[in-house]
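Take a minute with the sequence and C-alpha cells given here and flag any C-alpha cell that looks odd. Thanks in advance.
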Amino acid sequence: MSQSVLNGLRRIQEQLKLNEKDIAHIEQTLRDQADRKYHEKSKIEVKSQQIGKEQHDTDLVSKTTGTDYTELRNLLGDKQWQKADEKTAQIMVKVAKRE
C-alpha cells in the first residue's frame, strides 16, 4: 500500500478519532483488496501472454492472395510502428500488383 494511502488513512483516523484497532481493520481490508486486484491483473497478464504466444505460433497467410502478414503482426506486437508502416506499404504494393 502506498505511503500516500497510509497518510490519508492516518488523517481520517485523526478526524474521526478512531483507535488503532479500527484503523488496523481498515488497513487490512485495503491491503486485501489491493492483493486481489494484483492477483487478478497477474492472471490477466499471464493469459494475455499465452494468447500472444499462441498467435505467434501460427502464421497469418491470406487464403486469397497468399500474402503473409506474420511479420507485420510481429512488428505491431513489438510496437515498432515505423517498421510496421513500411511493411504495410510493401504488402499493399505487392497485393496491388497481383490484381
